[in-house]
Amino acid sequence: MTAFFPDVPKINFGGPKSRNPLEFKHYNPDEVVADKTMKEHLRFSVVYWHTFCNPLSDPFGVGTAHRPWDDGSNSVPNAQRKAKVAFEFFEKLGAPFYAFHDRDIAPEGSTLKESHAKLDEVVKVLKDEQARTGVKLLWGTANLFTNPRYMHGAATSSNFDVFAFAAAQVKKAMEITHELGGAGYTFWGGREGYSTLLNTDMKRELDHLGQFLHMAVNYKKQIGFPGTLYIEPKPREPTKHQYDSDAAACLNFLRTYNLLPHFKLNLETNHATLAGHEMMHEMEVAISAGALGSIDANTGDYLLGWDTDQFPTNIYLTTQCMHCILDMGGFTTGGVNFDAKVRRESFEPIDLFYAHIGGMDAFARGLKTAQAIITDGRLADFVKSRYHSWDCELGRRIESGQCSLGDLEAYIVPKGDAARNVSGRQELLENLINDFI
Ligand code: XLS
Ligand code: NI
Ligand code: NI
After folding, report:
1. Is 214 a catalytic residue?
2. How do residues 45-96 score in pLDDT, each as one tens digit?
3. If you measure from the C-alpha of residue 264 to the centroid of ligand 2, how many angstroms do you get, rounded to a whole number?
């Protein structure tokens, strides 16, 4: 292990009584919860972009991040060194996965060909480091939003050449993801949306996006990439109207263009908040469609209206997330991916450790709490019994599509009125959850 973080030892489990900020209090990777170890349940992943590339700037000031290993150049050796820093971080933290955009890991060249070549130089180092440490790639993606060429979007750009450029960039990003054994590949819409309909042919842009994704599906088959393709919904930011604004909008888009069999969703907490939903709502929408793949674990600030991407520390939130995940039978290719960044004031390298340790502990507690709620069974029993009246002959006929309005009229008219309602007991259930937290 090289020593870019000389003051940080391997992070171990110290237990709930530990007061050492460089120990886990709750995340004990080998501890079994129900049927699997915590490590297998949670599949933690560190994001390259926020953790190793984000200078911590904001609209009012330049970056504050102190990153002694970064010489500030756009050179390949600087990127290769950063790759080693990243793997020392993953290893010390005990994170089994990581995720990147093409432009996080290597600088962009002056032509696409040059950019591809630079990528290859860094991928070699990533491959060696993966082999050395056993850390795996959760998913890769292409950055189709930072470069000014993408001002009008990428797959929805009004400029055909930009569409072609984006396609070639995705092709290469899929290739390197495959080469690195990635478990998935993500499409976040970036600038796929619009600011004003005065200059926008919405239908034509959506048709282009549909075809773009079909080409990606075909290429996945062509190269034999076994990973899952994900779409990551997000509303409003950066464009006013993002096409992939929330889980329901994504599912509708995927169904319209016959893409649903090929994609799952990667849901991010802060994006749910911006869409005016709770994360749990987004997760249930995806699960109902059999399309929840992975989560970008972070949290927003309810007083700030933008994607602040903070580390999740709220046990109520992590419990809800893990309850959904356990209910659907756990992750397959997905994981808990910390798409989160330290605050601008937390500029020292060690803050990156504190942030991730806290997020991992919060999810470990969420996992244990959710499992305890499931084992207890009262919550699930309540929901089941709430629909008890449907467990009748006519109910079964409706649910299997074999009932008419006339049948229902014949049933209800002799009764005169519907049976009395029973309480939804929201407060009792909220108290029940708090018994476990
Ligand atoms: C931005 C998104 C982005 C994706 C990957 O808000 O969360 O970081 O996760 O492109
Ligand atoms: Ni994200
Ligand atoms: Ni985000």
Report:
1. no
2. 999 999 999 999 999 999 999 999 999 999 999 999 999 999 999 999 999 9
3. 14
**CB distance 188 to ligand 1 below 6 Å:** yes
List strand residue ranges (DSSP E) for 169-320, in order: 184-188, 193-194, 228-232, 241-242, 263-268, 292-296
224 shares a domain with 155: yes
* Atom of ligand 1 lying closest to residue 307 CA: 6
Going by C-alpha positions, the residue among 296, 239, 235, 237 that lies closest to residue 265 is: 296
**421 and 285, same structural domain?**
no
Residue 179's domain comprises 27-376
Q: What is the CATH number of the domain that holds 324?
A: 3.20.20.150
Reported as a single tens digit per residue, the pLDDT across 147-197 is: 999 999 999 999 999 999 999 999 999 999 999 999 999 999 999 999 999
Q: Is 116 a catalytic residue?
A: no
Q: Which residue has the tokens 């890769």?
A: 140
Q: Which of 302, 298, 210, 225 is closest to 258 using CA atoms?
A: 210
Which is it for the CA torsion 393, 397, 402, 407, positive or negative? positive
Residue range 234-243, pLDDT digits in tens? 999 999 999 9
Residue 304: the pLDDT is 87
pTM: 0.97
- Statement to judge: residues 309 and 254 lie in one domain: yes
Contacts of 111 (CB under 8 A, 6+ apart): none
* Torsion angle (degrees, nearest 10) of CA 203, 204, 210, 214: 160
Band of residue 305 on the pLDDT scale cut at 50, 70, 90? confident
**Ligand nearest the Cα atom of residue 50:** 1
Question: Which residue puts its alpha carbon closest to atom 4 of ligand 1?
Answer: 188
Contact residues for 346 (Cβ-Cβ < 8 A; gap 6+): 354, 355
SS3 for 290-307, per residue?
CCEEEEECCECCCCCCCC
